[in-house]
């Protein structure tokens, strides 16, 4: 038996081994084997193993638990006035302003959109105050056009190359982070893209048993973003009867499940 791959998540170890041309995935929780999956394809076994691993976590409560927690705070779901006012309205306002002042098609090749984009970053609380300071420096610096053009191209599905270009443009200001690179695509096209707030999203993934909990890396790797989109798609499917309109609703759902408490009044998102 040969170990092919292994990773750790807190007190959980995921191990992929090969025996007689069969790949076996093992979850070790508190030193004990709790889940075993096998199959002929290493990548598929590893994906299944990651999805199952979350169920071994003491934080796991599945999508049913996530739904119940969300509805505890917003009994009317995504359509309730309270939800719209606290979680959706201000994000939609930022999107509409961005669409008018820095339209996606023009931003992809145009220049001079720095102040308009900065205003869109300032209009929500999705980034921390410290991140906003660094974003301001970047959008008033020599790489502003390069970042905005790359963000627009990423939104238009240019994937890895556009992500690398955003990273290059943001590195001088030490702000090449998931929160910043995912923000504009999320506002421009919330039906396709997703905002990534790492800690709360990892926590959510662990609670519902999704592999993003182990896929996540701070490094700007397109595979991490693909895993995020898979999490968003799966969450959308699980909540189909609640009629989420787009990934603004999905991002809000993740935030509410992961960070709201009994005293929450639109906390920092």
Describe the structure.
The chain is an alpha+beta fold and about 270 residues long. It folds into two domains: about 1-55; about 60-260, no CATH class. Helix content is about 55%, strand content about 10%. The chain is built from twelve helices and four strands. It has a four-stranded antiparallel beta sheet with strand order 1-2-3-4, with helices on one face. The longest helix has 27 residues, at about 145-170. The chain is globular. Residues about 265-269 have low confidence and may be disordered.
Summarize the structure.
The protein is α+β, with helices and mostly antiparallel strands. It has helices spanning 42-53, 62-73, 81-101, 104-107, 114-122, 129-139, 144-170, 178-188, 198-208, 212-215, 222-238, 247-259, and strands spanning 2-9, 12-19, 22-29, 32-39. It has a four-stranded antiparallel β-sheet, with helices on one face.
Keywords:
single chain, 269 residues, alpha+beta, 2 domains, four-stranded antiparallel β-sheet, 4 strands, globular
Question: Helical stretch count?
Answer: 12
| Integer average pLDDT | 89
Q: Please give the largest β-sheet.
A: 4 strands, antiparallel
The figure for the number of domains is 2
Distance between the amino and carboxyl termini = 46 Å
How are the SSEs placed, and which strands pair?
Elements: E1 2-9, E2 12-19, E3 22-29, E4 32-39, H1 42-53, H2 62-73, H3 81-101, H4 104-107, H5 114-122, H6 129-139, H7 144-170, H8 178-188, H9 198-208, H10 212-215, H11 222-238, H12 247-259
Antiparallel strand pairs: 1-2, 2-3, 3-4
Helix pairs in contact: 2-12, 3-5, 5-6, 7-8, 9-12
């Amino acid at each position: 038996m040969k170990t092919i791959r292994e990773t750790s998540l807190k007190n959980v170890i995921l191990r992929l081994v090969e025996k007689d041309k069969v790949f076996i995935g093992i979850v070790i929780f508190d030193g004990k084997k709790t889940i075993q999956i096998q199959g002929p394809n290493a990548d598929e076994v590893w994906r299944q193993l990651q999805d199952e691993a979350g169920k071994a976590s003491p934080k796991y409560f599945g999508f049913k638990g996530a739904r119940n927690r969300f509805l505890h705070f917003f009994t009317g779901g995504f359509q309730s006035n309270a939800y719209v006012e606290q979680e959706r309205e201000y994000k939609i306002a930022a999107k509409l302003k961005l669409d008018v002042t820095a339209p996606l098609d023009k931003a992809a090749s145009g220049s001079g959109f720095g102040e308009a984009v900065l205003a869109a970053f300032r209009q929500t609380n999705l980034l921390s105050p410290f991140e906003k300071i660094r974003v301001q420096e970047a959008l008033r610096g020599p790489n502003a056009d390069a970042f905005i053009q790359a963000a627009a191209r990423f939104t238009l599905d240019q994937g890895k190359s556009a992500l690398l270009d955003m990273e290059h443009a943001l590195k001088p200001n030490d702000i090449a982070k998931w929160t910043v690179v995912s923000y504009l695509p999320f506002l421009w096209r919330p039906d396709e893209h997703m905002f990534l707030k790492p800690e709360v999203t990892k926590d959510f993934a662990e609670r519902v048993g999704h592999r993003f909990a182990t896929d996540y890396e701070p490094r700007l790797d397109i595979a991490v973003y693909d895993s995020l989109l898979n999490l968003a798609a799966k969450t959308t499917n699980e909540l189909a009867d609640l009629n989420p309109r787009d990934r603004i609703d999905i991002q809000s759902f993740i935030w509410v499940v992961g960070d709201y408490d009994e005293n929450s009044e639109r906390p920092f998102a």
